[in-house]
Amino acid sequence: MAAPEDESSAQSQSSSATAAPTPPPPPSSAGDHYLAKCVLPPSVVLQVAYGYFRSPSSRDIVFGKETCLELVVISEDGIVESVCEQNVFGTIKDLAVIPRSKMAKDLLAVLSDSGKLSFLSFSNEMHRFSPVQHVQLSSPGNSRTQLGRMLTVDSSGLFLAVSAYHDCFALFSLSSSSMADIIHERIFYPSEDGGKTSSVQESCGTIWSMCFISKGFTESKGYDPVLAIVLNRKGSLLNELVLFRWNIKEESICLISEYVEAGALAHSIVEVPHSSGFAFLFRIGDALLMDLRDPQNPCCLVRTSLDLVPASLVEEHFVEESCRVQDGDDEGLSNVAASALLKLSDWDPMFIDTESDIGKLSYKHVSSWTWEPDHNYNPRMVICLDDGEFFVFELIYEDDSVKINISECLYKGLPCKEILWVEGGFLATFTEMADGTVFKLGKEKLHWTSSIQNIAPILDFSVVDDQNEKRDQMFACCGVTPEGSLRIIRSGVNVEKLLKTAPVYQGISGTWTVKMKLPDVYHSFLVLSFVEETRVLSVGLSFKDVTDLVGFQPDVCTLACGLVADGLLVQIHQDAVRLCMPNMDAQSDGIPVSPPFVSSWFPENVSISLGAVAENLIVVSTSNPCFLSVLGVKSVSSHCCEIYEIQRVELQYEVSCISIPQKSIGKKRSRASALDNSCRAAVPSGMERGYTFLIGTHKPSVEVLSFSEDGGGLRVLASGMVSLTNTMGTAIRGCIPQDVRLVLVDQIYVLSGLRNGMLLRFEWPPFSHSSGLNKEEMDIVVGERDSLPINLLLIATRRIGITPVFLVPFSDSLDSDIIALSDRPWLLHTARQSLSYTSISFQPSTHATPVCSSECPQGILFVAENSLHLVEMVHSKRLNAQKFHLGGTPRKVIYHSESKLLIVMRTDVCDAGTSDICCVDPLSGSVLSSYKLKPGETGKSMELVRVGNEQVLVVGTSLSSGPAILPSGEAESTKGRILILCLVHTQNSDSGSMTICSKDGLSSQRTSPFRDEQLSSSSLCSSPDDDNSYDDIKLVEAETWHLRLACATTWPGMVLAICPYLDHFFLASAGNAFYVCGFPNDSPDKMKRFAVGRTRFMITSLRTYLTRIVVGDCRDGVLFYSYHEDVKKLHQTFCDPAQRLVADCFLMDANSVAVSDRKGSISILSCKDHLDFEYSNPESNLNLNCAYHMGEVAMAIKKGGNIYKLPADDVLRSYGLSKSIDAADDTIVAGTLLGSIFVFAPISREEYELLEAVQAKLVIHPLTAPVLGNDHKEFRGREIPSQATKILDGDMLAQFLELTNRQQESVLATPLTSPSTIKASSKQCPSPPLMLHQVVQLLERVHYALH
Asked: 882-894: per-residue pLDDT in tens?
């Protein structure tokens, strides 16, 4: 039964309140200054390119993801590993690889909304793409009639073509050698001067596809290129194949021939590589092999019907029907019939709001294709049809004929937007709204290898505090049917948490893992040092205490340990250096005697303070007096060795840390970042022979030393002073090296972590002959030297915390990435210039060590909160997002704190028109219970609302199919329902235990190498990898929750928005009306509508803050209302100053609202000052505080949760910077349709002005300017009033931290040449010069808080 509506509520907009208005709310507390940071880049891959980008000898893959570029490689085991990812500060429209000579790297050609054709080259030094040349084609934007929509490159790399959507294209000849001017010649069609060579009628129409038709291997620079275009002329029902030739000598383009055949609609033209004139013309229902060797007489050689291809293969990954949700949205914002080209090639992310499937083609067509790389004879092509079937086409050349062999269906899954055949027999496939896949091509089918995560689109999310990790995690509704999923998204680099001990390990002072023999792959022992104790545990099938069997002294604190030779372990403690030979009971390769062999070396009347162990070398230091001793090991008998002192030197300063590279400098293994011999830097003189090790001193300094027994002994190779000052010129305290490491990746450098939480990078100078050190200034007295030590250059400094920094390499290799432990763990990317680090998704830890065993080859053991945590680092994984496959399309998600369950609304669960509300376990992803809506009823909105002392779930639905909004923005005549569901808690009669049933290979108690230590598998420690996503786990608990219908009411429109209001009301919309509703007598069985408010257009969102109500209108933007409970009337108080297509909004406080629109922008608006507050003037406009164009549509924005702040406020105050980035209430989190997550953090005015000045220099500096040539101010301010304050671009500012000190100084010294920038700055008082330390410290704080 419909709830009664108050009679007077219908006139609430035209009548004023009889009672005195409520006192105005306080002035706005939301700030006007924000910084935006994309914390998770887009995951949807729209374009792919395959070429030699980093080196002429290795191939890479480039992903075009609309607003960013990502360079990846596919490893030998078929895993996609990310090399680098960069924001382009624009929108990518198309990209292609330009092949160069075998001795040069390939270039990347990109079209973007900058209106430019950009040529990019990968910079190994900067570790990202850099622009080589920009060619202006049109004005910035997305015009359909201007050049910049599509590009194609001929197979030789000598010609390039660019087209618009309609009517025109351009041809370019490219230089094969010059990098300064890549464009040799160019011509436009129709010509810009309107000459006789261009007939408008010849090219008038929509350009669907184009490619060059090559002549073969003998083509020369005098060759006139032929361009084939699939063209839809205006008014024509069929598309034509049109061939054009560029006569370079006559500087003209002429139409050669046209080909059209009645029947199917042609959509794509694809050249057959190395064929000298063959091409495939793909049409709806068939594929034509065209002979274009004679361009004047095109003909079809072979016709292949796509509806008569061999029967489909059924396998374990088979998908019955792939429903592509690509239809008109609730607002009718786009006209699908505008161009069928958009249906076939360009997915419009606006079409996600309804469930009907329009325009589905009845015949199959090719949606994507790829050629086998480097296959010149009998080329093969993999095609994917629009129903997800994969086939292989092979061309067989027989005499003068051509034959096409078609394989059986290799696989059936989702239709792909892009597919790529790469070396090694791998096939990478990419879908728009589901995970991609890497397959291994077999003879008869595709074999699944790995997934390529794609979380787009994010339709809704809920931020929940993870108490165990002391940080937030996001539960997001991602993807569409049939691959809809719930993702748990966490910040930082992903770790797979395997095992955890009880908190019984108090006082750990050090951890090490040790091998039994130098060539061993796996570790044999784990050494734990305590304040007054040492324990040695075996690593293997058991994890037991073998301290006595190894020979380590158990009642001392171990300072260092390691393997000095095969079977010889060394323990260094305060009183001695102990040499041990473990017996066979400790390790199978041990000595066959019962007590392990032990021998010790004792210092003379001093205590050892530090030590380090490596192959054939032991180094120890003492304090008071300060000595450095080099020790060796010699064999006395078969099972007897002893330690002897080789050399001792006296130090002027105490040693603070010692590090010995475990691998020889000359034995550098290859990796993705080490490309070829030309990329390797020369090893500095003195390292090619003997042993090299590093020390840190209390001077403070870092020293690189070399030791050789056969000549010279110990000598200093290089020295770097640690002298840091703040902006005031005061020395920074605590700059003593805590740890130091040598790194060799393309060049050699030194990393040092300091005791005050800072991280330093030193490099050898380009010419290392000169040195500024005098002999008396040297720290170590070692006698005569051949040459003075080299002065190391301090390249970069960063603060990553306030506690000492420990550096833990992943492996013994010199090019291994490194874990930096401070206030929280960070991953240092050693292959990048300067200092580049990413947070690790794990809690703060005091110690860490790599653990490599057969059960866990990439393990890391962290010590945190007195527990041992075994995790597996997956730092090459592209996304830290765990997947729970739900099926259907998840639309809304809410976290229910009482039950600790997620409530998810799904549509298209089994078929179109089926929706339900389900309860999901956030730990396993299991659907515990669900409530199904009526057939044909679609869920639209839901919220938890308090009724008395309980919470109920209010659900809004649609009973009508089709769009909810007319093209004008007005509401369609539809019906909907409001459902009141109670979450009922019941007790099972079964036992109180929880049973976990899992498939093979995914047991809840994974095989543990630490069984004897009682490490338990944490239920919260699940893997984000899709293979370990708990899809098959079922939970049977003693307590269950299910949904019960309390009441249902039919409403006069789709209920698109619901929001709780105060403690006893809720708001719900229907069409262009919204209602204040409540529950009389606090009973969920009966609902009543108290008041109604109306807008001009469809209402898409409702939000409240205390008594304030904000309404999101699909055309008029956001509107503020207040409700007078005494007279039961709603009054509009403020309105949006501009029309806005609201996607989502929320009230930050009573006077400020954050809005995302469907054009890709975020805006913050607020009321005028409360002195101007008047209920009688509903046209009192809101003020636009600030805005930011993301270039991506955010369908969900919410308040931020825990935002980390750097615990170094006292340091920042010394720079005059206020504490700002800790106001979680004012932080905004946005999830976009491309799978991105943005965070908008409030900053103070002083910080804003400082960073604004830095940003103005970054956007014009050659190293950091937008890579596609965009005007940064135009892009970030697109469709935003010029007078509005612009939100700072955190991605642009983040580039500053990736630069070296000298590059940073160069940026800050850049003069502002932009007239608009000079004009804006002239209005203010002259600002003081930018101080490098001040800028770096503030950006470090931002990086720490938002990363």
From this structure: 899 998 999 999 9
